[in-house]
């Protein structure tokens, strides 16, 4: 019977395709920095189509030095998962070490800012459409209450100016079929 040979895993970072420096703030207010570097996704020599791609990730600084190859089914997935490591896993590890991790003063959107922003925009749009639907229901009901509809529209405008989601009213829901 043939022996299973160990899976190839990169041992070094290789060609660096991106890096980001994060600021760490300790509970004692002491600051430190870590540098996260992403290597170019690679496939091992002689790899078959079934072998994973790897995106090496290196972390240096604040006593958190590590090297982690992240696997994916193709180069893009390996890269995305490596970015997710820096966005989701690394902040938890930094927190366990007593630090808070930020980039440009933001602790929420460390790597995939557009992704997080698009979720916020999507939520705001869904809320807007729900409120507009409620206004339409109010205006088309038998006992049209234009004052209530006007108030709902004003809430939408006010919320948009302040960057918040409009508050939903419970009354329009009763008129749905």
What does this structure look like?
- With about 180 residues, the chain is an alpha+beta fold.
- It folds into two domains: about 15-100; about 115-175.
- Helices cover about 40% and strands about 20% of the residues.
- The protein has three helices and five strands; from the N terminus they run ββββαβαα.
- The protein has helices at about 75-95, 115-140, 145-160, and strands spanning about 15-25, 30-40, 55-60, 65-70, 100.
- It has a five-stranded antiparallel β-sheet, covered by helices on one side.
- Helix 2 (about 115-140) packs antiparallel against helix 3.
- The longest helix is centred in the C-terminal third of the chain and has 28 residues, at about 115-140.
- The protein is elongated, with a radius of gyration of 25 Å.
- It starts with 15 loop residues before the first strand and ends in a 15-residue tail after the last helix.
**What Rg, in angstroms, do the CA atoms define?**
25 Å
- By DSSP, the count of extended strands is 5
Average per-residue pLDDT, rounded, comes to: 80
SSE pattern, N- to C-terminal: EEEEHEHH
Biggest beta sheet attributes? 5 strands, antiparallel
Contiguous low-pLDDT stretches (5 residues minimum) are: 171-177
Q: What's the total helix number?
A: 3
Kindly state the percentage of residues in helix.
Answer: 25-40%
In what order do the strands lie side by side in the largest sheet?
4-3-2-1-5
- Note the overall shape: elongated
Separation of the first and last Cα atoms: 68 Å
- How many individual domains? 2
């Amino acid at each position: 019977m043939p022996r299973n040979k160990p899976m190839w895993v990169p041992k070094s970072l290789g060609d660096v395709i991106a890096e980001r420096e994060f600021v760490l703030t300790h509970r004692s207010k002491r600051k430190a920095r870590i540098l996260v570097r992403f290597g170019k996704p690679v496939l091992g020599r002689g790899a078959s189509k079934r072998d994973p791609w790897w995106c090496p990730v290196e972390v240096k600084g604040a006593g958190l030095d590590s090297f982690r190859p992240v696997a994916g089914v193709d180069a893009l997935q390996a890269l995305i998962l490596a970015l997710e490591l820096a966005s989701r896993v690394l902040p938890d590890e930094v927190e366990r070490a007593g630090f808070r991790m930020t980039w440009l003063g933001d602790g929420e959107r460390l790597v995939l800012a557009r992704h997080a922003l698009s979720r916020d925009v999507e939520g705001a749009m869904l809320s807007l459409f729900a409120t507009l639907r409620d206004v339409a229901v109010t205006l088309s009901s038998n006992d049209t209450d234009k004052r209530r509809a006007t108030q709902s529209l004003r809430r939408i405008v006010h919320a948009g100016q302040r960057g918040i989601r409009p508050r939903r009213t419970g009354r329009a829901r009763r008129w749905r079929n």
